[in-house]
Amino acid sequence: MTVRKLMAGAGAACIALIAMCASAQASTVTLDQLVRGYAEQRDFSGVVLVARDGKPLYQAAFGVAQPGWTTPLESDAVFRIGSLSKPMTATLVMRLAELGRIDLDQTVGFYLPALYAETEAGRITLRQLLSHTSGLADVAPRYTDPFWTSAARRSYTPTEFAREWIPGKLAGKPGVWRYNNNGYFLLGMIIEAATGNSYADNLRQHILQPAGMRDSGVFDGRSILPKLALATAPADDGGRQLPPYIDASVSYAAAGVYGSAQDLLRFDTALADGRLLSQAAQREMFMDRGNQYGYGWGVEDWTVQGGPARPVVTHTGSIPGYQSILVRSVSDRVTIIILNNAWQGAVVVGMARDIADQLHGKPVALPKRSLADALTPILYHQGLDAMRAEYTRLRASEPENYDVSEKALNAFGYGLLRKQKIEAAVQVMRWNAAAYPASPNVHDSLAETLLAAGDVEGARAGYTRVLALDPGNRHAAAELQKLRPANP
């Protein structure tokens, strides 16, 4: 994939950034080298924007916006942002609460009585919806689930979707944290019930317009968006394909927003400047309500080089073909925004962490190539023996260029297992066990994969090895108990 950085004045911005990083005991790897490394080594396609105090320090675009025509991405491209919509929905709810239009302590049944009066879900409060502690039944988490491959392709009104997919009977105990898309879907409906206007209109009036977000809105699947970057998804054989279709109505207030990196920075700046919410409301929104999550935002502490923990508020977003992340470092007002149109979740999250580390003085290594990306096409097109041969060649000739870490090999193996390439998955897990023989985790993964292949004796030996390395491992002990031969 051709790598291009498309930004006027990029040189001056990078020079200023490098000087700033040098003063902060930065590593020899500059931010531009780091981000370009992800584009060159990991085929990152998207836009990266880094700012301090609302002013861009670095902005770059890589990859293509129209894959069929190989049209290069521009830095003002528009992306669907998936669950990065949740911070916007939460901010909108908090703003309406400040205006007296919504009561956070009221219940779902109060605002949506036709659907939820006299039900368990009807007793949930808006605070519980915001903090993912409602206990609501949720849609399936994996896009391979039948819900996403069939029902989610239909078009719904919000009421139709709630009647069919958000039951009144709870699936869990209220007060216990569990990430929940349906909770944010209901928040969109409550916004409409409380104001008499659509979720999209409320978002435009109270968030987008005050922040100056000109290229953002709620994706409806019908409107032509001139700057929209078209998305691709990984194919099983290691190539690229169009992502699975999901009707826009299913995303709604949980994952339905689109926008540009510049607009997300405007959102961040408007929050910081108090144009969207008072500081008191922001403190309430960013308070940890359990599992490092506030109201619509992850609330975390990131530590660099053993120094003091830096509080950050953050959120990721994933919707077929797109991946996004926004990180706000609270103590020094550094903002990291990454928008991706190749559905590269691990790449995007890893890049954000590396950028944060680099900005705060931690030496950062350039990313390595993905072994899975290199070997999967060979497996599908030439077979397992050819994949084995190429792995041997790569380990011998260029081991420094590929990520052969325990984590990377484990993820590769499980990816093959999900694709039902079981023999290949076993091989990758054996490579991992040979490379990291003292790790209980790799032997546990190998045992699980051998069991999927029908090798009970091999699985039993694997779990026994886990217990030899980690005698207190409950999972291995439980699996061994299940695999114990029956008494004759």
Instruction: Kindly estimate the percentage of residues that lie in beta strands according to DSSP.
Output: 5-15%
- What is the CATH domain class of the largest domain? Alpha Beta
Rg, please? 24 Å
Q: Can you tell me the CATH architecture of the largest domain?
A: 3-Layer(aba) Sandwich
Terminus-to-terminus distance: 61 Å
- As laid out across the biggest beta sheet, the strand order is 2-1-13-12-11-10
Number of helices: 21
| CATH topology descriptor of the largest domain | Beta-lactamase
Specify the biggest β-sheet.
6 strands, antiparallel
What structural class results from the helix and strand content? alpha+beta
Show unreliable segments: 1-27
Number of strands: 15
Quick tags:
488 residues, Beta-lactamase, 45% helix, 3-stranded antiparallel beta sheet, single chain, 2 domains, disordered N terminus, Serine Threonine Protein Phosphatase 5, Tetratricopeptide repeat, globular, 6-stranded antiparallel beta sheet
Provide structural commentary.
This protein is α+β, with helices and mostly antiparallel strands and 488 residues long. It folds into two domains: 82-359, Beta-lactamase (3-Layer(aba) Sandwich); 369-483, Tetratricopeptide repeat domain (Serine Threonine Protein Phosphatase 5, Tetratricopeptide repeat), CATH 1.25.40.10. It has 21 helices and 15 strands. The chain has helices at residues 10-23, 31-42, 85-98, 108-111, 113-116, 126-130, 146-149, 158-165, 181-195, 199-211, 252-255, 261-272, 279-285, 345-359, 371-382, 384-397, 406-418, 422-435, 440-452, 456-469, 474-483; strands at 46-52, 55-62, 64-66, 71-72, 78-80, 217-218, 233-234, 240-241, 257-260, 298-302, 310-319, 322-329, 334-340, 369-370, 402-403. A six-stranded antiparallel β-sheet has the order 2-1-13-12-11-10, sandwiched between helices. A three-stranded antiparallel β-sheet has the order 5-9-6. A hairpin with a 2-residue loop joins strand 11 and strand 12 (322-329). The chain is globular. The model is unreliable at 1-27 (pLDDT under 50).
